[in-house]
Amino acid sequence: MECGDKRTRETMTDMTLPGDGFRLDGRVAIVTGASSGLGAAVARALAAVGARVAIVARREDRLAALAKEIDGLAVGADLLEADQVDTVVPRVAAELGGPQILVNAAGNIFSQARAEDESADALARTLALNLVAPFRLSQQAFPHMREAGRGSIVHISSISGLVGIGSIPQASYAASKAGLSGLTSELAVQWARHRIRVNTVAPGFFRSEITGDLFDTESGQKWLHRNTPLPDDATPEDIVGAVLWLAGDAARFVTGQTIAVDGGWTAR
């Protein structure tokens, strides 16, 4: 019995504790859309577990404050502009080192017109920011992750890419987010041999700059509560845990997945 106990203690000493899988000490992470909301919350969380974080967005004044808070690198870039997208990873690699984590949190809705009335310009802008930019950044991060022998790419999608919403017209947005799930599956399979994992987090409705009016009106609150089984209003911090899990070794055998974090919306 004593020998058995000793072997058990030795085995437990050699094991990696579950919490260790969430540590990211020394790894370089890029987070886009980090000037507010979910992107900023993700950047703070990654920094808190040891990552060296580069934050990317258009609003450089907000980036500067957050970069100082988390001792990170602020990279001003408008991801609607292809030439600016292409500067992000090279700059991060030069100043912090090659990225092993990429969180594509930047996204927007450029039209609230019904599908039959959406303009070609709104469609093009939506796809450029929500789908093309994440793809290009993933391509640019790939050689650094391959060299490191590991990597994690996390796209931030939406339940709009999984189910129709209807009462809030957003056809091009839904198409772009559904496209992220397809991109996730394909990149995951192509890059798995390099131990590069690619996943998507699809949040439900949470309070943000885009959805503030929805949360602040009585009719919006009733609609949200009617469609969300869990009774709480979601915040960016409710989404962060899934991103943090996927970014590190705790999810080392998870790839190609789109994970809904939606209070049960898509389970109805």
TrEMBL record:
It comes from Pseudofrankia inefficax (strain DSM 45817 / CECT 9037 / DDB 130130 / EuI1c). GO terms for molecular function: oxidoreductase activity, acting on the CH-OH group of donors, NAD or NADP as acceptor. Belongs to the short-chain dehydrogenases/reductases (SDR) family. Keywords: Oxidoreductase. It comes from the Bacteria. The keyword Repeat does not apply. Transmembrane segments: none annotated. InterPro entries: NAD(P)-bd_dom_sf, Sc_DH/Rdtase_CS, SDR_fam. This is Short-chain dehydrogenase/reductase SDR.
